[in-house]
Amino acid sequence: MIDSDVFVQALQDMGVNFFTGVPDSILGGIIEELMTRKVYTPAVREDEAVAMAAGAYMAGKIPAVLMQNSGLGTSLNALISLNMMYRQPCILLVSWRGFQGNDAPEHLVMGETMLPLLDTMKIPHRTLSEQTMADDFRWMGQTFMKQRVPLALVIKKGIVKGLHP
């Protein structure tokens, strides 16, 4: 399991300096660490967080948006009509709720369809693992700089330390 502080430090080491998002239990440890470092700006909705990240990017920041995968549905319009169209990149840190059908019923459909949805939206994505973290972060940095589009790092439950064991 990756410690939340190690995960956040790796993001900051690659230059990410604006963090926003919507609370989620899988991302809780990361959000708590960001709040401890006083670098997290909470959002009410995922599309609002995407818009805030776009503004941060225009102000010279490297933004990351934290959301659960159901938030992709909420943020589709902003991602396509703002970020994709105007080539405004952001790092989407997306928790994989409903992975392999193990979650509350409201998460199952998005859990099954998230990766094909990201492919359809032409949003590059990788699924984080403890073994591939260094490669995943290298990929994020390269993709952010070269493609200038949103990209998603998908995080399954138990990969990054949460608030509760």
Could you characterize the architecture of this molecule?
With 165 residues, the protein is of the alpha/beta class. Helix content is 45%, strand content 16%. The chain contains six helices and six strands, in the order H-E-H-E-H-E-H-E-H-E-H-E. Strands 2-1-3-4-6-5 form a six-stranded parallel beta sheet, with helices on both faces. It is globular. The N and C termini lie close together (11 Å). The relative contact order is 0.19.
Please, what is the average pLDDT? 92
- CATH topology (level 3) name: Rossmann fold
The top level CATH class name = Alpha Beta
CA radius of gyration is 14 Å
Q: Could you name the ranges where pLDDT drops below 50 across 5 or more consecutive residues? A: none
Q: Give the tally of structural domains.
A: 1
Helical run tally: 6
Identify the CATH architecture: 3-Layer(aba) Sandwich
Question: Could you say which overall geometry the principal axes of the C-alpha atoms support?
Answer: globular
Query: Into which percent range does the helicity of residues fall?
Result: 40-55%
SS-based class? alpha/beta
- What pattern of helices and strands is seen along the backbone? HEHEHEHEHEHE
CA distance, first residue to last residue? 11 Å
What proportion strand? 15-25%
